[in-house]
Design a protein that fits this description.
Blueprint (H helix, E strand, L loop, with lengths): L1 H9 L6 E3 L2 H7 L3 E4 L14 H12 L1 H4 L5 E4 L9 H7 L17 H10 L12
Parallel strand pairs: 1-2, 2-3
């Protein structure tokens, strides 16, 4: 999101990114952003609460005038109505991702064969350590 937002800004189009994963937002470094400390998937508020959603959007959109430092993130002051228990669940599930590899991985052998047939010189975007 940060790269796209920076390119839009370079073209003269103001942007404001909204997110609920602060570490990802900080790493993406968009020109300006609003952070809502809600569970993922609820970046603009809780379901079936249109007034809360409007309030969140109003405060976030105020970032267009309030955030004057590139990369600034506005911390929205709202709290998830069901408490903070979701944070423990979200952070204690453990890392279930598979190990990253330097070479392409295929689900099926026929996928590998097709990839090699279609790209006999190798993957154009893969970075293989030598």
């Amino acid at each position: 999101m940060g790269l796209i937002a920076r390119n839009a800004e370079a073209a003269g189009i103001p942007t404001l990114s909204m997110g609920s994963a602060l570490d990802i937002m900080q790493a993406a470094n968009p020109p300006r952003a609003a952070f809502l400390d809600f569970p993922l998937g609820h970046t603009t508020g809780e379901p079936h609460q249109p007034q809360l959603q409007r309030d969140i959007l109003r405060q976030a959109l105020a970032g267009f005038t309030e955030l004057t430092t590139p990369g600034a993130i506005k911390m929205l002051p709202f709290r998830w109505s069901h408490g903070d228990g979701w944070k423990e669940t979200a952070s204690n599930d453990g890392d279930t991702r598979v190990e990253r590899h330097d070479t392409p991985q295929y689900q099926f052998e026929e996928d590998r064969v097709l990839a090699e047939q279609n790209n006999p010189e190798g993957c154009e975007v893969c970075e293989v350590s030598a």
